[in-house]
Amino acid sequence: MTWSIKLGRILGIDIKVHLTFLLILGWGASIYGGEAGPLYGLLVTVALFVLVLLHELGHSVAAQWFGIKVKDIILLPIGGVARLERMPEKPWQELIVAVAGPAVNVLLFLLLLPVAVAVAILQHTMLPGTLSVESITQPGALGLIMFLLSANVMLVLFNMLPVFPLDGGRVFRATLGFFMDYERATFIAVLIGRMVAVALGLLGLVTYDFFLVLMALFVYTVGGQEGQSVALRGILRKIPVERILARDRVALTPNATVEEVASQIRQSGQPNFAILDPNSHQLLGVTTSDDVAAAMANGQWYRRVAEIMRHTHQIPKIAFHATLDEAQEKLGQASSRVGAVYEGWQFRGLIDLADISRAFRLLASPKAREIVG
User: Fold this and answer.
1) Domain limits at 1?
2) CA 113 to CA 153: how far, in whole Å?
3) Are 240 and 322 in contact (CB under 8 A)?
4) What's this model's pTM, rounded to 2 decimal places?
5) Is 136 exposed, middle or buried (CB count within 10 Å of its CB: 0-12, 13-18, 19+)?
6) DSSP state of 248
7) Residue 8: in which H helix or E strand, if any?
């Protein structure tokens, strides 16, 4: 996500903060400061987002347990987002990943509660069992702990609303997934989530609660985007790689020069070239238009393509009979735009993200049904 600054890594996950997060820090410093001043308000705001970060780490650890890569966690003014490489499509797995975040907040509440009681006793401000709501707004150690207790409760209650893509909405989709296919469950969860989002947005406008309006926009937009993504993946899952694999692409020998490849690119528009052993016809590597452009920029027109190619160990292998969603996932895992397609040990060609993007565009057209059928 653009406009984000990396703060560090936890459990192999990049922790980032969006630049707009600075706005919430200023707002929190003024709102929560009270008599103690803006520094205390800033401390309270940072502590709140530590809870949000731990919540997202709960989701992330659960996802990693199922072998799902976590791209990063980004802190935003409206909360946090753990960006997973993919969502688990088995209902019981999604259920665990969705519940893991709120479960962290429940655990934190249970850990902080005896601390709050102990601090209250030490300060002689109240007896155990009489911790009041008013103590949340009082600056100091007890006030901060009480605020964090209430924040954990609110995070659980808010996130468990059955509104997709909030945690409760994902639990709702996972529950539906036990009784129907993933795409249908997502459609229903997104539809209900969007209906609730519209209602929340209207309520926010009437009550001048612009934070509520912002949350409604987030739910409506992000939920819709994921719904579309799931629907498209559902169709891509039905299309094998072999169906869109180009049969007329040119392959090169390792002795071809950068100039010759550039000429091939101009003539055919082909973006990627397989470099084959002239004797065994086995794949040695791949060179892309970006590789060629970089070599040309450095004046290396007569350099052999074997010297600039990406070797086979750098190229993800994709099965000939794999589906397009599997190919897309493999390319994403390898952070590569091109993959080598094999049928057994036989190299069959290259597939890249542009090929899959064309399939996406075609699937959005009226002729999509003809391909899937």
Assistant:
1) 1-160
2) 12
3) yes
4) 0.68
5) middle
6) S
7) strand 4-10
Task: Identify the pLDDT of residue 137.
Answer: 57
Assign 3-state DSSP to the chain and report helix, strand, coil percentages, each to 5.
60, 15, 25
Grouped pLDDT means (10 residues each) for the chain, 373 residues:
79 85 72 71 84 93 90 83 82 93 95 86 58 58 84 90 88 90 86 88 86 82 79 76 79 85 82 85 86 83 84 88 84 83 87 80 56 43
- Residue written as tokens 């072999």? 242
| Number of structural domains the chain divides into | 3
Q: Coil, strand, or helix at residue 297? A: helix
Which two structure tokens, joined as six digits, stand for 261?
Answer: 């490849």
Answer yes or no: do 311 and 339 share one domain: yes
**276 and 186 within one domain:** no
Structural contact between residues 99 and 167, judged by C-beta atoms closer than 8 angstroms: yes
The secondary structure element, H or E, covering residue 360 is helix 353-363
What is the rounded distance in angstroms from the CA atom of residue 179 to the CA atom of residue 49? 36
Axis-axis angle for helices 353-363, 324-334 (nearest 10): 140
Non-local CB neighbours of 77 within 8 Å, separated by 6+ positions = 18, 20, 21, 23, 24, 214
Across 91-124, b (16+ Cβ under 10 Å) vs e yields bebbbbbbbbbbbbbeebbeebeeebbebbeeee
Calculate the alpha carbon distances from 131 to 37, 41, 113, 156, 266 in Å: 24, 21, 10, 20, 75
Residues 188 and 314 in one domain: no
